[in-house]
What we know:
Layout: E1 2-3, H1 10-19, H2 27-33, H3 46-49, E2 64-65, H4 74-89, H5 101-114, H6 118-133, H7 141-145, H8 155-159, H9 182-189, E3 198-201, E4 207-210, H10 213-223
Antiparallel strand pairs: 1-2, 3-4
Helix pairs in contact: 1-2, 5-6, 5-9, 6-9
Amino acid sequence: IITIQEGLRIKDIDDKLVNLELIKADDFINAVKNFGGWEYYLFLNKSELEKLDLPLEGYIYPDTYFLDYENFNPKDLINLALDNFEKKTKGLLPQIKKHTIQEIITMASIIENEVFGTADRKIVSGILWKRLDSGWFLGADATLLYTKTDRKITDEDLASDNPYNTRKVKGLPPGPISNPSIDSIEAAMFPESSEYWYYLTTKDGKVIYSKTNDEQNANITKYL
């Protein structure tokens, strides 16, 4: 039994499989990089995804998988997870109107790592799409954390032109930053509009919303 939690990166899944003594370090990462089953999965945009370092990031559906420990092969887990993604999203993806599947999964992967709970995810989705549509920076810390091993953001990181630095580079990051749940995919597809432009998550997990930058700064001082 292998459980992949929502919001893990492919690198995290590789680490998990190493800890379970199923693979050597980077075996899962290399299997993703050398993936060759594009023609079996119509939701995968090969030409877009092959530009990324880890082309299946976002599509390894988080769930519990039953695999043979004795004869474990990373490819089997990849295929099971992609089959599962297809099954979970079959009725959903055809409803996408305004964006590509890749854009939706990228946004879902950000939402997954920014907030918890269906209601907050839909509101935050609305805020993030509104920022993009208005020519703002997306400004999500989760995108920069994707590129970090220590999960800490430095001033140097914030000043960098890293394409995953959505505080300095406009638009969505190049691709998904985690493997999101169906809840986050639905939130990305069906955002809730609100008067808010900012949000933060308190230490106990409550999401606080603001309409203005001043209000947000006051909330940062108060809650963080």
